Amino acid sequence: MKIALLYPYTKMSAQGCNPPISLLYIGASLKQSGNDVLVIDKDHGNLSNPDMLEKLKDYSPDLIGLPIFANTLPQAYELVNQMVSAGFKGRILIGGPHASIRPQEVLEDFSGCDYVLRGEAENSIVKLAQCIGGRKDFKSVNGLSYRDGDRVVHNPDASPEMDLDRALFPARELLSDAYAKKTYWRIGTRGTTDVIITSRGCPYNCNFCFKVCKKFRMRSPENIIAELTAMRSMGTRSVHIMDDIFAYDKARCLRVLGMIKNSELGMEFKVRARVDGIDEELLAAMKESGVKSIVYGVESGSQDILDAMNKRTTVDMNYRAITLAKKAGLQCYADVLIGYPGETPESIAKTEELLLRARPTAINVSVMYPLPDTAVYNQAKASGILRDDWSVKNNDAWIQLPWARTKNDLYEFKRQILKRYLRNPVIVFNAIKSVLFNIDARQLKALARYFLEYAI
Fold first, then answer.
1. Is residue 79 part of a domain?
2. Is residue 437 domain-resident?
3. Contacting residues for 145 by C-beta, under 8 A, at least 6 apart
4. pLDDT averaged over the chain?
5. pLDDT-based confidence at 437, cuts 50/70/90?
């Protein structure tokens, strides 16, 4: 069977561009089961909808699969309608986070969609392909939602793979041209960059976060090193370890870092961690194994807001984690979130004060986006302060606070935080020093656009 997997959204930002790793996991399972697979990534060639439709026409797949997210509903809706209008004979499958929690809505809104796969789909998509080929009954595919006449059928949920070492490595060869042409990059790093996922799920319950499957599972250090070795054989030297909580299990983390160091792969890494899971020993081991930068989910400089988010961290932990990372010689990035229910101009000021005091290498400021079925979304909807709910006509839901008349009021706070941060001479000097000798022309243009947007 010929199956096309499509990632039709731009991932490119001032920080870089990652490969659609979830599609490459799915592609690996489909290939192993004997299917012919094509992966189309919008970012490889900056493809327009007509460009992607032309590639689909040339390939003539039996099944077309794409993920949808709450903030990409209008884009997906337009593209699926264009597929239908183009007369493609292949069935259309939708997966991803939004489809996993709202399969009924997706099948009702997307008249051209034949199937929805809920949850992690590496195994279920193989069974679905067998059903389409006439070898299995659709009722046998756990995690599948589909139309049966005038009604929508939701099969039981699929069980997540508990032993992640059994999962195939992503089929990166399906995007070999994109890798070769350096489509995937990260600011401050020359050449092609890649990503690896060493765990899935999360044992925490932050009120704003959504996971397709919350059950926390970890790969073995040996399995991780095997994939890194395969990535290095493709020429990859720079890797982003995408786990939100890479350092959750300290003993495992130290073992992975030790094996990376001893393997002499000659790779460098970016990692993510919670501020309450970091200490001097871990940071020193990271530095010795090639970790160049670390990202923390700082979220806020107000203890009241951190508590409301159920972060289970403190402002002091935020400051300490940033300070320790810089002391260890790592670039340190801080993600913050403004506009959470209970936020005030005063609490935002506390966040800015923390950032200016701790001086991370760079910051990423997001305005609260209430993802469907998260605790904060349900709270805002019940309280009547959810505005512009997610739909095929809207991709920017927000929460109205008593002092914010419009969404732009919140974005103005974001702009002001970034402007003052980027105008701080010490911060700018340290940031430039950290990337000066590791940027190319494309990254320089991205940085220039970013500064023009926020610092001027």
1. yes
2. yes
3. 103, 104, 106, 107, 115, 116, 117, 118, 152, 153, 154, 155
4. 94
5. low
CB neighbour list of residue 177: distance below 8 Å, 6 or more residues apart: 44
**pTM greater than 0.90:** yes
- Residue 422, pLDDT > 90, answer no
Q: What is the CATH number of the domain that holds 118?
A: 3.40.50.2300
Which residues, including other chains, have CB under 8 Å from residue 68's CB and lie 6 or more apart? 76, 94, 95, 96, 97, 98, 99, 106
Dihedral angle sign, alpha carbons of residues 120, 123, 129, 130: negative
Closest CA to 179 of 163, 198, 195: 195
Please say whether the beta carbons of 89 and 61 come within 8 A: no
Residues 232 and 348 in one domain: yes
* Residue whose token pair is 């506390």: 350
Q: Is pLDDT above 80 for 246?
A: yes
- Domains of the chain: total: 2
CA 86 to chain centre: 31
Tell me the sheet residues that pair with 299: 336
> In the structure encoding, which two tokens stand for residue 379, read together?
């709270």
Q: What is the largest CA-CA distance in the chain?
A: 65
**Domain coverage including residue 71:** 2-154
Mean pLDDT, residues 395-412 taken together: 94
Asked whether residue 216 falls in the same domain as residue 304, the answer is yes
Same domain for 8 and 141, yes or no, is yes
d(CA 36, CA 27): 9
At 47-97, the pLDDT tens digits run 999 999 999 999 999 999 999 999 999 999 999 999 999 998 899 999 999
Angle between helices 441-454 and 407-422 (to 10 degrees): 120
Sheet strands (E) in 316-431: 331-338, 362-367, 386-387, 398-399
Residue 380 domain flag: yes
pLDDT score at 436 = 63
**Cβ neighbours for 336, distance < 8 A, ≥ 6 positions apart:** 298, 299, 300, 301, 351, 355, 363, 364, 365, 366, 417
pLDDT tens digits, one per residue of 157-188: 999 999 999 999 999 999 999 999 999 998 88
Burial, 385: exposed, middle or buried (Cβ in 10 Å; 0-12, 13-18, 19+)? middle
Pair 111, 196 in one domain: no
